[in-house]
Amino acid sequence: MSGKLFIIGFGPGSVKHFTERAKEAIRESDCIIGYKTYIELVRDLIGEKEVISTGMSEEVTRAIKAVKLAEQGRKVGVISSGDAGVYGMAGLVYEVLVERGWTEKDGVEMEVIPGISAINSCASLLGAPIMHDACTISLSDHLTPWHIIEKRLEAAAKADFVLALYNPKSGKRTRQIVEAQKILLKYRSRETPVGLVKSAYRERQKVVITTLGDMLEHEIGMLTTVIIGNSTSFRYENKIITPRGYQRKYTLRKEEQPLKPHERLRKENEPWALHGGKEENDAPLDLANEALSKVKNGKSTVPIVHHVQESILEFAVSPGLANKQFTPEQLKTLAEVVGEKGTMEYTPHHQIYVKIPTNNREKVTAPLKKVGLLLLPVGNVLTIKACDFCDGEKSDSIPYLNELYEHIGGMELPKELNIGFNGCGMACYGAVHEDIGIVYRKGKFDLFIGAKPVGRTAHPGQLVAEGIPPEQIVDVVSGIVHEYKEKGYPNERFFKFFKRVKEVQGFVYRDITPKIDVNPAPCGD
Ligand code: SAH
């Protein structure tokens, strides 16, 4: 008869927070092993079963005992508070098994049952302090050298993790929490919110909300978990809340409104993230707002959080559509507005891409507009790149450029789309290499579409029409762009879209990809 080991995380302490599987496992066990205090917490579930309880520092003894009993064919439930895999019994039992040459195939059966760890149970009592990247650090130096704990505290503090400190203090270990506070204060303000939760979901539960500066003035003990906020965590009522994101981003849109709260976290509004702006599920903020609005309608007294978080305004700046010359005054104003905290990046689109931390869009945009700068939205939008029309000599087509910009400039699209607009057949600003190329020649327009502007198989656009009368050009191009907006897949570049649908506004796709064998480019193509 082969035995079995259940390693049971029973959560913070109240039976209500046991998982169903944890209860079953206790029922299925014929013998329960655990630390005395914990045995008492689950006494009701154990009933008449054999119980082996030991003192606190006898975990190794418990692990060996459990393994031996299972090897004799017993079904042994090893109980561990919180989650058995977090400073719990799971690792110890595996270590004993490894020592004895255990194999999954021939050894006793193992089942580790997950439980709610203190980081989660304590956080729930404090509000929502974890939310973002967080780590657990145990301040117990019984099994871990203090210099390693110090290093981890230092690293976590520096990297702005929310911290959950386990085993913060005991009768004998009193200096560790003092040292930990010192390290944290090197990187975080004294006002950083801190939650002290003692005996979460147990009889003597106590919750204190304090600050990093004052936390040592309160009781901290063996049964306390100390949760330390990151630099964005804030206190509201008697809660600690860590926002989901560090900073909100918004850009200019046609109507020049900052994104509404529920729009800001949409993938299309985060083209700089790893997902590259691609939509999947998302919008946790949507859900949160929806939940809040429901509660509000139900006349609950739950306060709606009005925490003001600084946002980053992102947009592009250029001296004009056809104008390529900055004035000293414009550059000076731009530098002043961007300031120490903002950034400026020169892009391949004849634009300067700026990011400025601010919640006041007007304050940023008004001075720039005043000196004649053109402000353009960024992200998956339509950008028009025009030549300098040889400084005006070939400027007959400029009114059409302006009209086109009025119609569709800045429009949101499945993916960024560039229109090149050049004033003569030389197209020396490279219109034929843009997604859509418009070239003015002898009073009419030539139209190129579907260029592959990047990658090793880059190629110019296909010449789909010659001599389009000026009065038609805006409609023709708008038609193409609207069709792409409507039928393009999220994140699908225009040339891929054209290749897929084969025909746009009556213009038929021809494969003009260079027929050469190339290996993929190292950074993707
Ligand atoms: N396996 C456990 C952790 C054991 S280490 C888990 O996953 O939660 C023991 C430490 O856990 C304690 O010093 C305390 O910091 C924390 N802890 C465990 N249960 C707790 C509870 N109910 N309330 C507050 N802290 C708790």
Features:
single chain, 525 residues, alpha/beta, five-stranded parallel β-sheet, 15 helices, 25 strands, 29% helix, binds S-adenosyl-L-homocysteine, 4Fe-4S, Precorrin-3B C17-methyltransferase, S-adenosyl-L-methionine, EC 2.1.1.131, Cbl_synth_CobJ/CibH_dom
Structure, described:
The protein is an alpha/beta fold and 525 residues long. It is built from 15 helices and 25 strands. The chain has a 5-stranded parallel β-sheet, sandwiched between helices. It has a 5-stranded mixed β-sheet with strand order 7-8-11-9-10, sandwiched between helices. Strands 14, 15, 16, 17 and 18 form a 5-stranded mixed β-sheet that branches. A hairpin with a 2-residue loop joins strand 12 and strand 13. Helix 4 packs across helix 5 and helix 13 (398-408) packs parallel to helix 14 (470-487). The protein starts with a strand and ends in a 17-residue tail after the last strand. Residues 254-259 and 300-307 have low confidence and may be disordered. The site of S-adenosyl-L-homocysteine (SAH) has 24 residues, from helix 6 and strand 11.
